[in-house]
Design a protein that fits this description.
Blueprint: H1 2-24, H2 26-51, H3 56-80, H4 84-111, H5 125-147, H6 155-178, H7 194-198, H8 201-215
Helix pairs in contact: 1-2, 2-3, 4-5, 4-6, 4-8, 5-6, 6-8
C-alpha cells in the first residue's frame, strides 16, 4: 500500500508538471490532449468489448458516442485556450476537479466510515464530504486570486463541479465493475489508466464551466 502511494504521489507530481507546461504553451496542451484522447478511447473500447461482448451494435454505438464526446471535449478546450482569460477559467475548473479528487482521497482514507454505494467499494460518505469541502474551498481561493474579490457564493461553483466529478467517477466505476476491471489500464503508475484519472474530469469540467458562466 505504501509503495503504491509513493507511485501515486510521484505520478501526480509529473502530471502537475505536464499541466503547468500545457498552461503556458498551447502546443504542449494540444499534444497532451491528443495523447489523453487516444489512450482514453482505447481503454473505453476495451471496457465495452468486455461489458457488451454479446451486443456488438450497442458496443459500436457506445464507442462512437464516447469518441465523439472526447473529440468535442478536446477540441473545445484547445479552441478556447487561444484566449488567455478563457484558458485560465478552464484550468481553474480543472484545479477544482483535482481538488475534489484529492479531498475525496484524503477524507476517505482518514475518516473511512460508511460506504457510499456498492458501485465503487472505495467510495465513502466521508470521501464525498471531503470532495465537496476541498473543491468549494479552492473555488473561493482561486476566484479571489483571479479577480481580487471575495465571494462565498463562488463555493456553489465548487460544489457543482465536485458533484459533476463524482458523477463521472461513479459512472465509469460502474462500467469497470460490469467489465470486471479494477482499472481501465496501467499507463499511470499508482493511478491506473488514463481514463481512471480523467473519468470525473470529463463531466466535471463541462458542468463546472457552465456553472461558472451562469453563477459568476
Amino acid at each position: 500500500m505504501e509503495k503504491n502511494l509513493k507511485k501515486r504521489i510521484l505520478t501526480s507530481i509529473v502530471l502537475f508538471l505536464f499541466l503547468f507546461f500545457a498552461f503556458i504553451n498551447n502546443f504542449v496542451l494540444g499534444y497532451l490532449l491528443m495523447i489523453i484522447s487516444i489512450f482514453s478511447v482505447l481503454e473505453f473500447v476495451k471496457m465495452m468489448k468486455i461489458f457488451l461482448k454479446n451486443n456488438i451494435a450497442l458496443q459500436l454505438l457506445s464507442n462512437f458516442v464516447f469518441i465523439f464526446y472526447i473529440f468535442c471535449f478536446s477540441t473545445i478546450i484547445l479552441t478556447f485556450s487561444f484566449s488567455l482569460s478563457t484558458k485560465m477559467l478552464f484550468f481553474l475548473i480543472l484545479l477544482i476537479c483535482i481538488a475534489s479528487d484529492i479531498g475525496g482521497f484524503v477524507f476517505g482514507k482518514t475518516f473511512k466510515g460508511p460506504k457510499l454505494t456498492k458501485i465503487s467499494p472505495n467510495k465513502t460518505i466521508s470521501g464525498v464530504a471531503g470532495s465537496l469541502i476541498f473543491s468549494s474551498g479552492l473555488a473561493i481561493i482561486l476566484i479571489y486570486l483571479f479577480n481580487k474579490s471575495f465571494d462565498l457564493n463562488v463555493a456553489v461553483i465548487g460544489l457543482i463541479t465536485s458533484f459533476g466529478c463524482q458523477t463521472g467517477d461513479l459512472f465509469f466505476s460502474l462500467l469497470k465493475r460490469k467489465s470486471s476491471l479494477k482499472d481501465t489500464g496501467n499507463f499511470l503508475p499508482g493511478h491506473g489508466g488514463i481514463l481512471d484519472r480523467i473519468d470525473g474530469i470529463l463531466i466535471g469540467i463541462p458542468v463546472g464551466f457552465f456553472s461558472l458562466l451562469v453563477i459568476y
